[in-house]
Amino acid sequence: MNRMRLLSPTAILGYGFPVESFQEGMSHRPDVIGVDAGSTDPGPYYLGQGKPFVDERAVMRDLALLIPAAKTAGIPLIIGTAGGSGARPHVEVCLSQVERVAWRLGLRLEVAVIHADVPAAEVRRALEANRITPLSFVPELTPATVEQCGHIVAQMGMEPIMAALSAGPDLVLAGRCYDPAVFAGPAVLHGFDPGLSLHLGKILECAAIAAAPGSGRDCVLGTLEPGCFSVTTLSDNRRFTVQSVAAHTMYEKSHPYLLPGPGGILDLSMVHFTQLDERSVQVQGSEFRAGRATVKIEGAQRVGYRTFSLCGIRDRTMLGMLEEVFATLRAAVADNFGPEDYLLTFRVYGRDGVMGPLEPQPQVQGHEVGLVIDVVAPSQEQAAAVCGFVRSTALHLGYPGRISTAGNLAFPFSPSDVDAGPVYEFAVYHIMEIDDPLALFPITFLTLGEGYTPATAGDAR
Amino acid sequence: MSTAGLPPSTETTATAKPLVPLTTLAAVIRSKNSGPFELTLDVFFRSESIYQRAKARQIISAALIAGLYGVPPESVLDVVYFDAAAAVKVTLARPVSSGSPRDTDVYGAQQHMPLADALVPWEVAANEANAVA
């Protein structure tokens, strides 16, 4: 293959795309459609709890366009980090969505499913063998932490996707995946340079976010040739510029031009961008330097349950003595509940609610603030008890110079307190040495459709 | 406007360089997580010539960032100038990991203003005045 075209319809499966730009993309006869379905950006809850962060209705809408288009064109559709975090429950949710779309459209689909879960025992063995190292600013991993993480996933590289594609499926549904791999996998399988393929994959996995103006819900097309690749937009109101593509190269990364990934490092220090036409940019010079076989592993640990109360303060006297008020409230909680195991945080919007300890101007400068009384405790009941107590005490607290003796807080909602459920934190974000880039990622092949009725077909929308 | 770590612009003397807001030199100043434990700041300069001067003078440094954000210098992992994008990237430790109980900004997308408000030393040669204006 001398030239390969790769279509990226959307930044995240379920973020959507205009049908016109998708049809424009399909008219270029792409060789593959790739979609990244995940991210750690929305925080640890989704991995820890095994829940998707994109609404099912939105995912089904995208799948209902992508699956028949790929099937009709006879090209594979590759979905990476299925279900948002790519652990087994996420992959199963996405597979169920695929099943329902295929059933509704009467399509027979050959599907390759690649799981990315790492059993706790495997992580413990790697830990004992000194094969796990933390990334910058990440705490050392302990066996106890490994036990407390419900799901630990590894980011697969290109190899499992290449192996799955070799069987010729209609759809590859991959668990946790290095984002660029859904595009780099098929490209390298067809003999293209891994450096160019990974760099193109890094741009395509965010779809039109790398264009100007940026958008997470528009299609873009990548074209690989020997020695270079190009990216082009598929909507008239959007273009790739040298600046937008160069800027995207740095997006969300620790280092602007050295991008470590599974099995090596993408070195963009010699990269060169050229404006090809009004909306296309050509890229040369991206290099992949193979290193040790490693994967990044991720896991989230439950640290408690949250109840919060949202309110506002308008009284000028109280705004001048918030810290004294908070200290009084903390003492009252301790007096009432004893030294219980809870974390009480007063989040003051209009002071340092956004930046916390990094805020250089932690003073109230406006005429009102928003206050979030935030309690995390070992159980939902404890969190609700402490939050409710702080809220009621704060409402009627007397303080020096008080003129508003009927109440201190303005609540926009009834009920005023919200149980927000379990709270997680990332506890595993480490590099694990491996022997075989395929071994952690079992591939299973399924046939959907033709006489097959999904268990959840009645829910098909 | 934050001037942390820098002398006020009104005290410019014959030996001190004039200070200009970073926003006069850079069109995009943004923050985002780079993974759940790091915050990364990107500054895209307004022109290649401004970028080259900024890089030559290292106007954005680990010491400047540590001062602006009130963190120890060892919290600043890296400051890297990237010619292909006429940009500089700064990566620092998050105060707490993304989405953990004390976090204030899960995506890290609103941590850029101390840098955007920074005043940086900048002498403009006559032939470059237009580029900066």
What does this structure look like?
The complex is a heterodimer of chains A (461) and B (133). In chain A, 30% of the residues lie in helices and 28% in strands. Chain A is of the alpha+beta class and 461 residues long. Chain A folds into two domains: 4-116 and 155-293 and 434-457, no CATH class; 301-426, 2-Layer Sandwich (Alpha-Beta Plaits). In chain A, the strands form three sheets. A ten-stranded mixed beta sheet of chain A has the order 12-13-9-8-1-2-3-7-4-19, sandwiched between helices. In chain A, strands 5, 6, 15, 16, 17 and 18 form a six-stranded antiparallel beta sheet that branches. A three-stranded antiparallel beta sheet of chain A has the order 10-11-14, covered by helices on one side. The longest helix of chain A is centred in the first third of the chain and has 18 residues, at 56-73. The two termini of chain A are 39 Å apart. Chain B has one domain (17-95, 109-132): Alpha-Beta Plaits (2-Layer Sandwich). Chain B has five helices and six strands. The model of chain B is unreliable at 1-14 (pLDDT under 50). The chains are: A alpha+beta (461), B alpha+beta (133). At the A-B interface, helix 10, strand 15, strand 16 and strand 18 of A face strand 2, strand 3, strand 4 and strand 5 of B.
Secondary structure elements and pairings:
The complex is a heterodimer of chains A (461) and B (133).
Chain A: E1 4-8, H1 19-27, E2 32-36, H2 45-49, H3 56-73, E3 77-80, H4 88-105, E4 109-114, H5 120-128, E5 132-134, H6 143-148, E6 149-154, H7 158-165, E7 171-174, H8 181-189, H9 194-204, E8 220-225, E9 228-233, H10 242-249, E10 258-261, E11 264-267, E12 272-277, E13 280-284, E14 287-290, E15 294-313, H11 316-319, H12 322-337, E16 343-349, E17 369-377, H13 380-395, E18 417-433, E19 443-448
Parallel strand pairs in A: 1-2, 2-3, 3-7, 4-7
Antiparallel strand pairs in A: 1-8, 4-19, 5-18, 6-15, 8-9, 9-13, 10-11, 11-14, 12-13, 15-17, 15-18, 16-17
Helix pairs in contact in A: 3-4, 7-8, 8-9, 12-13
Chain B: E1 19-21, H1 22-25, E2 26-33, E3 38-45, H2 48-57, H3 62-69, E4 76-82, E5 87-93, H4 113-116, E6 119-121, H5 129-132
Antiparallel strand pairs in B: 1-6, 2-3, 3-5, 4-5
